[in-house]
Structure formats: structure tokens, C-alpha cells
Amino acid sequence: MSGLRFATLGSGSRGNATVVACGRTVVLMDCGFAVNETLRRLAVLGLTGESLCAIVVTHEHGDHMGGVARLARRFGLPVWLTAGTYRGAGAPRLPEVNLFNPHEPFAIQDLTIHPYPVPHDAREPCQFVFSDGAMRLGVLSDAGHVTPHMQRSLDGLDALMLEFNHDPDLLARGPYPPELQARVGGRLGHLNNGQ
Predict the structure, then answer these.
(1) Are 102 and 119 in contact (CB under 8 A)?
(2) Using an 8 Å Cβ cutoff, are 143 and 118 in contact?
(3) Which residues sit opposite 28 in a β-bridge?
(4) 137: Cβ–Cβ under 8 A, 6 or more apart, which residues?
(5) What is the pLDDT of residues 123-157, one digit of tens each?
(6) What is the 3-state secondary structure (H, E, C) of the chain?
(7) Of 35, 40, 44, 159, which one has the fewest beta carbons inside 10 Å?
(8) What are phi and psi of 100, to 5 degrees?
């Protein structure tokens, strides 16, 4: 099957992972789940660990990177991430490390991946635009606000996976302690429903 395809395996504080595929090229963006849970979620899509070609990582927070090293080691997968993300994660032991500049595109087999930096409370966070040459998929999850560069990066897409995860009033009245409320709702946190 050709064409650009994508599906989320999960999005939230308990784990994040997204599959992007083109032909036989199947890339996992982030892996915040344990290996067995990731494999269970892949199986729902008819995929296995052996189906994957690589893992690309947005940033080092555990809900995005917690399962990356174990999954990569188990299936011998190359991992693509920024130098800041790699250092922020403690330079984990990986079968193959590919450090990229968040302003320069790179290719994994049939996919061209255009990273772009985002404002988030991590060492060198980024998000991605995936392309098969005909279609463009943008992903925007963990970012505290939208910058002009982000808008330019996401212009002219065929599809956009967008995560916004809180209402500012409900966040302020909710059970989270003040420091967590400030982190989530801050300019380096997460987009809110209004944004």
C-alpha cells in the first residue's frame, strides 16, 4: 500500500506514540509506553516491532521517551533525536543514535521528515512534518504557545495531528498543585483549548 498513513497509539500523560508510514517505511514518533504495551497497541494496527524502521523523538520527557531505549534495543531500531534531547535523556544506550538539527530535514527511507523547534520545557524539543513527496502530515503536540516559525512550518499541510489538552479555567480550579498548573499552562507547557 502506498501513500502517507498515520495513527496515534496514545496521547496523554501516561504515554505518547504515533505511527507514520509510507509504503514499507514505518516510523514510530515517540514511545512513552512500556514495550509490551507498545506492541499491543501496534498489533491493533496489524503491525509488529519488526514492522518498524526507526523511532523519531520529539523530546526527553518520560511520557514521550520512556519506552524508546528498550524498544530500540529489542528490535535493533535506529533512533533519531536532537542532541539536546539525547543529553536530556541521560544519553541512553541505543543501537544506533542519529542526532539531527531541528532546523534541517532528514530522510528515513521513503519519508522526508522536517523537524521544527517548539517552546516546551525540555532541552531541545521539536515536532515534525512528515512527507512522502506528495502529501504532508504535520504533528504538533507538546508546545506552550505557537510561534511564527511554527506557523510557517505547518503551512500548506494535507493533514495536521494537533494536541491541545486543557481549559485554563478548569486547570486553575482543578486538583493540580500550583507549580504543576503553572507548568502545564505556561508558555513552555501545553496548548490550551482556546489557542
Answers:
(1) no
(2) yes
(3) 19, 55
(4) 4, 6, 20, 129, 130, 131, 157, 158, 159, 160, 161
(5) 999 999 999 999 999 999 999 999 999 999 999 99
(6) CCCEEEEEEECCCCCCEEEEEECCEEEEECCCCCHHHHHHHHHHCCCCHHHCCEEECCCCCHHHHCCHHHHHHHHCCEEEECHHHHHHCCCCCCCEEEECCCCCCEEECCEEEEEEECCCCCCCCEEEEEECCCCEEEEECCCCCCCHHHHHHCCCCCEEEECCCCCHHHHHHCCCCHHHHHHHHCCCCCCCCCC
(7) 44
(8) -125, 155
- Say what percent of the chain tops pLDDT 90: 83
How confident is the model at residue 1, as a pLDDT?
44
What pTM, to 2 d.p., does this model score? 0.95
Write down how long the chain is.
195
Q: What percent of the chain has pLDDT over 70?
A: 99
CB within 8 A of 95, min separation 6: which ones?
72, 73, 76, 77, 78, 79
Looking up cell 504557545, which residue turns up? 145
Q: Determine the Cα–Cα distance for residues 121 and 143; give it in Å rounded to an integer.
A: 8
164/63 Cα distance (integer angstroms): 16
pLDDT score at 186: 87
